Amino acid sequence: MTTQRHYGMDWLRIGAFALLILYHIGMYFVPWDWHVKIAEPLDWVALPMLATNSWRLALLFLVSGYASAALFAKLGGPGGFAGSRSARLLIPLLFAVVVIIPPQPWIDLKGQHGYPHGFLHFWLHDYFGFQFIDGIALPTWQHLWFVVYLWIYTMLAALLLAVVPDAARAKVADGAARLLGGWRLLVLPALWWVLIYLAFPDHDETHALFDDGPSHLHYLMAFGVGWLLRVRPALFAAVARWWTVALVLGAIAFLPVAWIEWSWPGDTPAPPWVFQPYHVARNINGWLIIIALVGIADRWWNRDHPQRATLAEAVFPFYIVHQTIIVVVGWWLLQGRVAALPSFLVLVAATVTGCWLFYAIGRSIRWLRPLIGLQRR
After folding, report:
1. Could you tell me the CA-to-CA distances from 286 to 20, 55, 58, 80, 254 in Å, in that order?
2. CA 360 – CA 362 distance, rounded (Å)
3. Is the Cβ–Cβ distance between 113 and 190 less than 8 Å?
4. Is the peptide bond before 139 cis (omega within 30 degrees of 0)?
5. 272/281 Cα distance (integer angstroms)
6. Which of 40, 7, 58 is nearest to 215 (CA)?
7. Among 281, 154, 122, which Cα is nearest to 219's?
8. For the chain, how far is it from start to end, CA to CA, in angstroms?
C-alpha cells in the first residue's frame, strides 16, 4: 500500500459532489417526483439527468471507500477509525436533521398535500412527532441518507478490520485485486449490478436504511472497490489500460436508455418489454462510466492546486446545506411563476452563494465546525 496522496481522487470527489448539486437543481425542472417542481416541467431535461444518475451516487461511495481506507491507514486502528468517522458523520447528520432539513418536508406538505400551518408551527409541533403525515416520515434525513449509509458501511469496515487478522485481510485484498485485474474490472462489477437488478427487479430505492437491501448490495460493492484501489493501488494499472474502452462502451450502453426515455418521456406509459433492457443497460453504463472517470482522474487530474484543499474541505458542508437552499428558493420561484431559464440561473447563483456562506461562516466559528462536518481546530 502507498501512503502517497492521489490528488486525482480528491478532484473526482470534488467533481462528483459538484455534479450532485447541479443534479438536484435539475430536479426542479425534470418531470419526476420531487419536493418542489416548476409549473411546467421540461421533458428534455431528463436526458442529461439520466446520463449521470446511473453512476453519480455509486461514484460517491467509491471515492468515499478510497478516502476511508486512506483515513484508516492514517489513524492506524479500527477503534480510532470508527470514532473519527462517527464524529465526522453523525454530529453534522444530527445537526442537519434538526436545523437544516426541516424546510424540505414542510414545503413537501405545503405544496403537495395542503398542509395548513406555517413553518414555525410545523417545526415546533409536527416535525419532531416521530410520525407520518401524508406518507412523509418526520423527522427525516432526506438527502443525507447518503451520510447514514456511508456511516453504516464504514462501521462494517471497522468491524472487519477489528476481527480479521492482518494476514487474512492482506490475502483477501490480494485475491480481490487479482480477481478484478485487467478487463475483469470492467465486467465483474457491472455483472454484479445486473444480477442484483435481475434478482430484485421491482425494488425501488427507499433510502430508509432497513428496507433497502438491494441498494446496499449495489453501493457496498462500489465502496469496497474504492477501498481496494487505496490498499492495492496496482489496480490503477487496470484502470489506466481499460478506461478508454470503458468510456466508449459506457456511452454505447447509454443509447438504449436515452432512446427509451425519448420514446416514452415523463409520465408516458411505456410497454412492459422496455423495462428490463432499460435497467440492464443503465447498470452497465453506470459502472463503465465510473471506471472511465477514475481513469481520467488518474491520468489527468493527479496533481495539486492551491485551491484543492479548500474545495475538498468545503465539499461536505456544501452537501449538507445545498438541497435545502434549492428547495426553498425553488418554492419561492414557483410562487412567482418564474420561467425556466431565469429560474435555473437564480437557483445556481443562490445555491453557490448560500453554500459558500454556510461553509465560510461555519469554518470560522470554532463550535460550528463539527456541526458542518469539519475537523476541530
Report:
1. 15, 4, 8, 34, 9
2. 6
3. no
4. yes
5. 16
6. 58
7. 154
8. 29
User: How large is the angle between the packed helices 308-335 and 340-364, nearest 10 degrees?
Assistant: 130
Q: What are the residue ranges spanned by the domains of the chain?
A: 7-101+141-372
Residues 6+ apart with CB under 8 A from 68: 81, 85, 154, 157, 223, 226, 227
Longest alpha-carbon distance in the chain: 63
| Dist. CA 18–CA 7, nearest whole Å | 17
Degrees, nearest 5: CA angle 215-216-217:
90
pTM (global) more than 0.85: yes
Please answer whether residues 297 and 9 qualify as being in contact, where contact means their C-beta atoms are separated by less than 8 angstroms.
yes
**Predicted confidence (pLDDT) per residue in 97-144, tens digit:** 999 999 999 999 999 999 999 999 999 999 999 999 999 999 999 999
Omega within 30 of 0 (cis) for the link into 342:
no
- Lowest mean per-residue pLDDT among 36-40, 173-177, 262-266: 262-266
pLDDT score recorded for residue 334: 97
Instruction: Give the orientation angle of helix 213-231 with respect to helix 184-199, to 10 degrees.
Output: 170
Cell of 101: 432539513
C-alpha cell at 235: 489496480
Cβ neighbours around 344 below 10 Å, total: 18
CB atoms within 10 A of CB 114: 8
Cβ distance 285 to 340 under 8 Å?
A: no
Q: Residue 278 corresponds to which cell in the numbers above? A: 432499460
* Residue 156 CA to its chain's centroid (Å): 19
Q: What is the pLDDT of residues 324-357, one digit of tens each?
A: 999 999 999 999 999 999 999 999 999 999 999 9
Question: Letter for the amino acid at 156?
Answer: L
133 φ, ψ (degrees, to nearest 5): -120, 115
Work out the angle at residue 188's Cα, subtended by the Cα atoms of residues 184 and 194, and round it to the nearest 5 degrees: 150
Cell 491507514 locates to: 73
Whole-angstrom Cα distance, residue 277 to residue 256?
8
- Residue whose C-alpha cell is 438491494: 214
Number of alpha helices (DSSP H) and beta strands (DSSP E) in the chain: 14, 2
Q: Rounded to whole angstroms, how far apart are CA atoms 28 and 45?
A: 10
Name the β-bridge partners of 131: 138
